[in-house]
Write a structure and sequence with these properties.
This protein is of the alpha/beta class. 42% of the residues lie in helices and 17% in strands.
């Protein structure tokens, strides 16, 4: 499978491909042409063929794509079959919302613990997930294989928390803190930053631009 020099734009389209193929699969669709897939996704057939060709050939001329097989291939490319194990640092409002509502397991992640300093939360379970004091992070990580950390801690302790995860040998950090982490000092860790404000301001721009075009 080719993975060299894949653009970030292609990588960020892959989850969208998976979601769409999963919907088709659940609705009983067996096969689909690149044209039909493109139309339903608002893309072009050439774009889809070009994106998928980065990882090998999945379609068959005159037949199109086998939905179940392509769905499985995209899931494999995304690493959904690696059984990632996750812990969350910060079990406040956002952390709790993720713990209780986000489908980690459906996306190939197994959430096994949360950490917080609030004595009201420590020792409880949220959505079936045990909450430990953050002082126990290092000892817990030594005893359990964890490769992904989710940061939902307050901004002032974001960098410190990221370094602690790094020192524990974490592979990836899903960062919700709105603080840019010093990735150059954690070269072995992959960081995905989630900025809600950026997304909202992007929406604001699109609304404003649309309004100006109508003037």
């Amino acid at each position: 499978m080719k993975k060299e020099k894949i653009s970030s734009a292609v990588i960020r389209r892959l989850p969208r491909y998976y979601r769409h193929l999963d919907d088709l699969y659940r609705n009983g669709v067996v096969r689909i042409s690149s044209s039909a897939l493109a139309k339903s996704m608002g893309l072009t057939a050439s774009q889809i063929r070009q994106d998928l060709s980065c990882f090998g050939g999945f379609g068959q001329q005159g037949y199109g794509y086998n939905v179940e097989r392509l769905r499985s291939e995209v899931a494999d490319i995304l690493g959904m079959n690696r059984a990632h194990t996750v812990v969350i640092l910060g079990a406040g409002n956002l952390g709790r919302a993720l713990i209780e509502n986000f489908p980690f397991r459906a996306n190939g992640f197994r959430l096994i613990a949360a950490f917080d300093v609030d004595p009201v939360l420590v020792g409880t379970r949220l959505g079936g997930v045990p909450v430990y004091h953050t002082q126990m992070l290092e000892s817990y990580m030594r005893e359990h294989k964890v490769n992904v950390g989710v940061l939902t801690v307050p901004g002032p302790v974001a960098v410190e928390s990221a370094y602690r995860l790094y020192e524990c040998g974490i592979e990836g950090i899903w960062n919700f803190t709105n603080i840019e982490l010093p990735e150059q000092k954690m070269e072995s860790v992959k960081v995905e930053n989630v900025h809600f404000a950026d997304s909202l301001l992007t929406l604001s721009y699109m609304i404003s631009a649309s309004a100006e075009e109508q003037l």
